[in-house]
Amino acid sequence: MADRLLVAAALPSADALARALDGARHAGYPRPEVFSPHPLAELRGDGLGRGFGWALVVALLVAGAALLVQYYAAVGAYPMNVSGKPVDAWAPLTPAAVVVGLMAAGIWALVALFRDAGLPRLHHPVFDTSRVDFGADRWYVLAIEVKESELPPLRSWLKGLGVEEIEVIRP
């Protein structure tokens, strides 16, 4: 991880930031990050959602496993005649299986949210750059993590986009 660098590029406008982000994704950089003083309509809904689709799959798998465990306990391990109902009735087992499945999906979604948001990192290295000022409303920063060998082509590509300033940070 010592050969990884964080390149912070200061852009003049939100449109330039959106174009640079699209270009970075098409160039194959895995997780470019954007920092702006206000929410950008061009980037709305972008970045999250990679792990939330799996929440349904996790819910179904965990609920199915809970249903099988309860079924084994009711039919195989401890068969009892309760109120004259059949031993292999599935209806009394489903509420607990649904609740366990929903809890698993919620936990999965929370973990995916933390991962996508970059938590639990409390301080991002880009905030150590000279362009990021918490009181300013004029900066737009694109941060890309690269290897040292990828730095020269990235610099020339960013200069072609009209980047005002490029800072290299060792995270």
Task: Explain what this protein looks like in three dimensions.
The chain has 2 domains: 91 residues, Alpha-Beta Plaits; 64 residues, no CATH class. The model has no long low-confidence stretch (mean pLDDT 83). The protein starts with a strand and ends with a strand. It has a 4-stranded antiparallel beta sheet with strand order 2-3-1-4, covered by helices on one side. The chain is of the alpha+beta class. 43% of the residues lie in helices and 14% in strands.
Question: Regions with pLDDT < 50 over 5+ consecutive residues?
Answer: none
Largest sheet descriptor: 4 strands, antiparallel
The number of distinct structural domains comes to 2
> Would you give the CATH topology of the largest domain?
Alpha-Beta Plaits
How big a fraction of the residues is strand? 5-15%
Radius of gyration: 25 Å
At CATH level 2, the architecture of the largest domain is: 2-Layer Sandwich
Order of helices and strands: EHEHHEHE
| End-to-end separation | 9 Å
Number of helices: 4
Total strand segments: 4
CATH class of the largest domain, named: Alpha Beta
The helix fraction, in percent, is 40-55%
Overall form? rod-shaped
